[in-house]
Amino acid sequence: MILDFDPLWLTLKLALLTTFVLSIITIPIAYWLTFSSFRFRFVIETILNLPLVLPPTVLGFYLLILFSPNHWLGRWIEDVFHFRIAFSFLGILIGSVLFSLPFMLQAFQVGFSSVSRIYIETAMVLGKSKWTILFKVILPNCKPAILVGMILTFAHTIGEFGVVLLIGGSIPGKTKVASIAIFEEVEAMNYQSAHIYSAILVAISMFVLLVIFRYKRSLTMALTSKK
Amino acid sequence: MKRITLFLFSLFVLTSAVFSEKLELKSNHPNEVTEITVAVAANFKNPMEEIRTSFLKQNPKYKVTIIWGASGQLTSQIRSGAPVDLFLSADMDFPEALYKEGFSKNQPKVYAIGKLILMSKMGKNKSNSIQEHLVNENTKYIAIANPKTAPYGRAAVELLHYYGIYEKVKDKLVFGESVTQVNQFISTGSADFGFTSLSTALSKENTNQFWLNVDPFSYTPIHQGVIIIEINKNRSKEEFNLSHQFFEYLFSKEVHRILSVYGYTAPPI
């Protein structure tokens, strides 16, 4: 029995990139949602949290339609970039990012709203810009929440199945991640390799989480001290 | 706010009351109707609905419950003791494996033969050959079911080798876990072409504009096998008879007529 390590590598790559991309894009979204006085904020919030209730396969199916050459968006991407997002690593990355967005967002919002108003108002009175307040006041004060969001996203993506299955097309070395490899091995009655993949996934997740929890403090410092 | 909470709470109490009553009904009268459970591969959904309807028309006092799923999933469920009486797989391997493990007294029997076709969402030139369509540089992705697990996927790979274009189109292949998923790839237009079943093309939901029959000798016929599961239930005599009756019915003239309507060939008798 030869074990192919590509799926494991892809899962890791997908989980790390999803966490990275989401950390960057969720900060401004959460910031705006927590402190804006926009009347219809709850509508935006609802839309962003839809992936929580939508079955991942449905989300994947919508993305498949969106990126297909029959849809104006898919056609435009294909005409301009000569590239089809469906069946590519970028495709599963976009799917994963959308699917895990609510998890990251929830954690960040909880963190941002827990920062004492006194600090924020003090900074405002001192005439600091919104961005300075975000990076110097808010983020340093909710490191645990940010870390929780990142861990959740990472763990969530490791087990990600539905979205990737639908827009990925299970291409070896490109979109066939470990969860799909496990599913296929079980379907093919190769229980042994399914067990091995699963064990490796568990081991990787355990290791990553252990490291994170062990070095929690220094890690959050590194994350939040950069401008 | 309080009102809403109260309303939701009463709704919850009501539903739980209704459900508990239902459960009690079941436990009090277990032998009201003779009922069998049939596990069926999802690709056989449309013909199976009709087969069940016509069977129950002739035998109105029985009940036939159907579990749908991928053949592999259903096999695992049967192995773990799911109370299933009959298993209609999408291939021969799974029922064969169950038979070897002693879940059935008889070898799997072919109840239907599937046909492979080439399909696309967009209208394509019907006069072009399969090779021309697939090798064409405008064809970026060709969807096939996973050849490791799905019979239609294996057949598609055989066909590509038979036409001698496998190496040329290898990098265009994308894999669905089943024919159902291949159909999604085709009907969204994400894949330019896909190899799917004739039953897809003949189903009412099919909106794809183009499909092409393939050379029937280009792949091994896709046999679908059925077995009677003998060991998972303490069957009453009536249930035993009913499962055998249903099994026999699968090979009747009426079912063979239904098969041809849905794009399957009846097994040679």
UniProtKB/TrEMBL annotation, chain B:
Keyword Lipid biosynthesis listed: no
Protein family (similarity comment): Belongs to the bacterial solute-binding protein ModA family.
CDD domains: PBP2_AvModA (cd13539)
Residues in coiled coil: none
Keywords from the named record: Metal-binding, Molybdenum, Signal
Pfam families cross-referenced by the UniProt entry: SBP_bac_11
GO function terms (MF aspect): metal ion binding; molybdate ion binding
GO BP terms in the entry: molybdate ion transport
Name the record gives this protein: Molybdate ABC transporter substrate-binding protein
Domain of life: Bacteria
Signal peptide start-end: 1-19
InterPro entries: AvModA-like_subst-bd, ModA, ModA/WtpA
SUPFAM superfamilies for this protein: Periplasmic binding protein-like II
Species in which this protein is naturally found: Leptospira bourretii
Binding site for molybdate: S71, V179
